Amino acid sequence: MYNIEQQLSATVQGVIDGEVSSLEAYGNLKMLEKYLANCIDEIKEATFLEADRFADKTFLEAGFKFTKTDGKANYNFKGLSHWEQKKAELKEMEAMAKASAQNQLKFKTALVTEDGEVIEPCKITYSSPSISVSVNK
Predict the structure, then answer these.
(1) 91 in helix, strand or coil?
(2) Chain centroid to CA 126: how far?
(3) Per-residue model confidence (pLDDT) at position 137
């Protein structure tokens, strides 16, 4: 494991020092990330079975501290007529607030209904830019 960490640290340092292409390093690291995620998925079932040998929820093994947690309950409201109606109302309200926010960006004023009611604009935030990468075959 130490050897892998050393190689990765050297790659990062190479990018910082300008000796390694950041695009190439980024591409390789993203591919490694996918590979590691697949490896973890491959051994997950066996890991849960092995962890079940331990009575306590938290235990130490092989120099690692593991904590077992139960799955959480999920609730599905689809099909409940009252919920579906309120969800549709919410979707309409969101669309109006979004349109008002876009109007405010463009024309410096919120939208107003035919009745003279100002439609309160929602707040707009922006996510961080990203770069996607794939292997060019």
Answers:
(1) helix
(2) 15
(3) 73
What's the Cα-to-Cα distance from 28 to each of 11, 35, 60, 62, 133, rounded to whole Å? 10, 10, 33, 29, 9
Q: Among the residues of 64-122, which ranges form H helices?
A: 81-107
- pLDDT over 90 (residue 2): no
- Let me know: does 58 contact 66? Beta carbons within 8 Å: yes
Which pTM value belongs to this model? 0.72
CA dist 44 and 100 (Å) reads 47
Check: CB of residue 51 under 8 Å from CB of residue 68.
yes
CB-based contacts of 61, cutoff 8 Å, min separation 6: 54
The upper half-sphere exposure of residue 84, i.e. CA atoms within 13 Å in the direction of its Cβ, equals: 4
Residue range 34-53: average pLDDT?
98
The encoded tokens of residue 40 equal: 């973890």
E strand or H helix at 135, and its extent? none
Cβ neighbours, 10 Å, residue 22: 12
Structure tokens at 77: 């409201």
